[in-house]
Write a structure and sequence with these properties.
The protein has about 350 residues and is of the alpha+beta class. About 25% of the residues lie in helices and about 25% in strands. Helix 3 runs antiparallel to helix 4. The longest helix is centred in the first third of the chain and has 26 residues.
Length: about 350
């Protein structure tokens, strides 16, 4: 509104003296300042905390992933994010404007390869292409391994943005890595600090099961041939690092194959303490089949894990020993491993 129009408006409303006009102007300024204050408080983190969840999650990381707003953590939290299973819920809200987005931040660790972290539709990022950052994104959930200085115990940050609104996969991956750095700082194992991932693999597409190249691995075959594969599906990740995973079958009978190529994925097993499995591979955790579904070997000098699960009423692979040998041979070739089976 121009000065002339404001003057005319005040005159129409009876503000005809200088004193009345000054009072009206003061009220307008106060209202404007009040609205600006509400906007500033609701849409930014001015005077708010720089971090939440015991210093693990920064305001900048939250804003980059979930947009502007005030940050906080849910009441009664957090427990220290040091041990596997601990978690904290970070919140980004816009106050008077009703926006409320939250993300569950946690620490996870596994003694075996965490196949569920890399479902067949996952988008992955590998350490070799991302300066040491490794992890993945599946829907609203992302995870990132802690830096190498934190050891190889499978420690990782896991973030669940189911209530976080619409979040880009790349942004969620970067937030997971930032959280991993925050957890590492709490554990005093920050070296090297992880950079934001540059790119993610494409999600794997579900396809009809190929009986001659199960999961896209030449040499991994279905004994019953094409007729046995009729009506069955397969879906595999499009990357082999930090791990590869493939689902085969239906809801009532399924098989999962996985290869872990990143040593940080799990706690290591000493070869001398694990029983022999097939060729150069040994059973992990001191247990052999049928009480175990994972073996370890070395590929290019690095520990590499092969995992296989048969679920439900599964009879397409009647000879499990032969299936293991096929999987180790075909999977080993796919990742450039030295021969595992003589």
């Amino acid at each position: 509104m121009t000065t002339e129009k404001l003057d005319q408006a005040l005159t129409r409303r009876g503000f005809t003296t200088r004193r009345l006009r000054l009072r009206a102007a003061a009220v307008i300024v106060a209202i404007t300042a009040g609205l600006s204050g509400v906007l500033l408080y609701s849409l930014t983190n001015v005077l708010g905390p720089e971090t939440v969840c015991n210093g693990v999650v920064s305001a900048d990381a939250l804003h980059d992933a979930f947009g502007p707003g005030r940050i906080s953590e849910e009441h009664g939290e957090p427990a220290p994010l040091h041990d596997s299973g601990s978690s904290c819920t970070a919140v980004v809200s816009t106050g008077a404007f009703g926006g409320h987005r939250s993300v569950l931040v946690g620490v996870r660790s596994d003694r075996n390869t965490a196949v569920f972290e890399a479902e067949a539709g996952a988008r992955l990022f590998a350490a070799s292409a991302n300066g040491g950052s490794a992890g993945g994104v599946t829907g609203p959930v992302a995870w990132a391994l802690l830096p190498e200085g934190c050891g190889t115990g499978g420690l990782r940050a896991r973030v669940d943005a189911t209530k976080g609104g619409s979040v880009d996969d790349g942004e969620l991956a970067r937030f997971a890595v930032a959280t991993a750095n925050g957890i590492a700082a709490q554990l005093n194992c920050t070296q090297p600090k992880l950079p934001a991932p540059k790119s993610l693999s494409a999600p794997g597409a579900q396809q009809d099961l190929d009986s001659g190249n199960v999961c896209g691995l030449p040499g991994l075959t279905l004994p019953g041939g094409p007729s046995a594969a009729r009506g069955l599906k397969q879906q595999a990740t499009t990357a082999f690092a930090p791990l590869w995973s493939c689902d085969v079958g239906t809801s009532s009978a399924a098989a999962t194959f996985a290869i872990g190529t990143e040593p940080r994925l799990r706690a290591p097993d000493a070869d001398k303490d694990t029983p022999e499995a097939f060729g150069r591979a040994r059973w992990t955790m001191g247990f052999s089949s049928p009480n175990n579904d994972e073996v370890v070997t070395t590929c290019q000098g690095r520990p590499t894990y092969f995992k296989m699960r048969l679920l439900g009423n599964w009879n397409l692979f009647p000879d499990v020993t032969d299936l293991w040998k096929q999987f180790l041979t075909a999977g080993g070739k796919a990742i450039g491993c030295e021969p595992i089976i003589p």
